[in-house]
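Exercise 3.2. Students should predict the tertiary structure of the chain below and write it as structure tokens, then compare their answer with the key that follows.

Predict this chain's 3D structure.
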Amino acid sequence: MSRPGATPYAARGRRRPRVLRWVFLALLIVPIVEIAAIIAVGRVIGGWQTLLLLVLESLLGAWIVKREGARTWLALQEALRSGRMPSRQLADAALVLIGGTLLLTPGFVTDIVGFFFILPLTRPLTRAWLEAVVARRLLGPLGEWPGTGRGDRPPRPRRPDVVEGEVVEGRVVDPDEP
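Answer key:
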């Protein structure tokens, strides 16, 4: 029996999203990979040169983020002004934001990924990947709304205390009756 005022979903038990597992793993693995890459580059070109390269990468990244962020913002404003759906512009804005955050993180691996998200030549590839991930997450692997077998609409939630039907000429018709 559930507590008074509790939702029916609270009694099911909480499942942690898989995304949290990936974030946890990334927070453990990425710093180790970054430190190993910095040490490897430092052994090849020297410590001060590695530090200088990291600073130059950060400065270049900040300049590119500023430039691409302004371009994306102008494209978003133009799409809204013309009445078009700004889906591409919103995806680009998200990619510039994520790429800028990765470029602020010190390290070579995150900088490479950040540049891949931000540069105009590689952003369309990243945008296509992002759109595929979002579509698969929302629509399932077959491009259908989960549980319907069709791609046209989401399933209606079924509740045991609600009887679905339609009103036809003043009387309720149960869709399950023959």
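Discussion points: Helices lie at 18-45, 47-82, 87-104, 108-118, 123-139. Residues 165 and 174 are 5 Å apart (CA to CA).
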